[in-house]
Design brief:
The complex is a heterodimer of chains A (about 250) and B (about 150). Chain A is mainly alpha-helical and about 250 residues long. Chain A has helices at about 30-50, 65-85, 95-110, 125-145, 165-175, 175-205, 210-250, and strands at about 15, 20, 25, 30. The chains are: A mainly alpha (about 250), B mainly alpha (about 150). The interface of A and B includes residues 31, 43, 50 and 129 of A.
Chain lengths: ~250, ~150
Amino acid sequence: MAKGESPLKQFEIQPIVDINFLGFDISFTNSALWMTITTAFILIFFTAPFFKAKKTNSVSDLYPTRMQVAAELGFNFINSLLADTVGKEGKKYFPLVFTLFMFILFGNLFGMIPYSFTFTSHIIVTLALAMGVFIFVTVLGFVKHGVKFFSFFVIPGLPVYMLPLLIPIEIISYLSRPISLSVRLFANMLAGHTLLKVFAGFVSALGFFGILPLVFIIALTGLEILIAFLQAYVFAILTCLYINDALHLH
Amino acid sequence: MPQLEQVEFFISQLFWLGVFFVILFTVLTYITLPKIRAFLNQRDDFVKSHISKQDELIKKAESIIENYEAKLTEAKNQASQIINDAKDKALKESEDLIKATEVKIQHEIKQTEERVAKEKDTAISELNDQLKDSATNFLSKVTNIEKGNINL
């Protein structure tokens, strides 16, 4: 980082290829580049090991390769996550949760590479993902239950005189779901990367004693990798819970 | 904060997010995940079939062990029977032998006693004869009477 540069400069979007479509600016930017890399990596990581596996003839064909084990790990992780939160009906929504989790996870993780760009650190991206989940879950609820979906806002077993107070609260909490979902991810990524940059600035500013913030950065990078995983996990598990709510109401 | 200042790139970000998310979702849903699932199912089936095969083999082994034990007890019973039979037989034979021997011994004792009695009789009669002889001889010498005339 050059002197006097803002630690927020890393979040700047730089267009790589200017594209204008019907008056809209859809330039291919560094954000889009890292989305490309993430998408390509996920597809190769999970698809390639299983393309080698042809029809099994002998037992040894059933031994998974190392890459297969790694891919199965991700598969089983989301599978059990969905089974624990939603149950058997959750199988239908497996691809959605899997895609969301992997996209956010590898977006976060690739953001940890120096000089890369973290597209999940942009509120517009996380908000779009969260709104997508929110709209999907709401539509799902209406499709499954019709008008009965509104009973979701009425907590069962509550005295009637409490309802005028609690129904608005329930509606507000429901509507704030996409905001909390998106801001949580965005703020975590923003804060972590900013903190890393600030301490990186101390390394050059302190000269010899810069070794102290350097050690701190190393530890912090480990923490950030944990957070990168954790936030993707939180996003996925909340999506599962919202799907569960839409399917079962209470 | 570029996240909120670079509004001009919002549409670009949304557009590319949509494009890549849809690509990722589609490929994962229709190619990748079915492949992984198929592979996992195949392996599960294999493992399950082997577990059922294993159960069968365990049952077989158990039946073999039962069979073996049954045969073993049978053989043991037979062996003890044979031993008992042999013991009984040997006991009877030895008893028979002892009885026969006792009878024989008794018989011999009797014979021997008879012989001894006979010999005793003959010896006594011989002694009598000799005494008679010597008595007649003595009397004839003393009395001068012919031996033939003396009658004791």
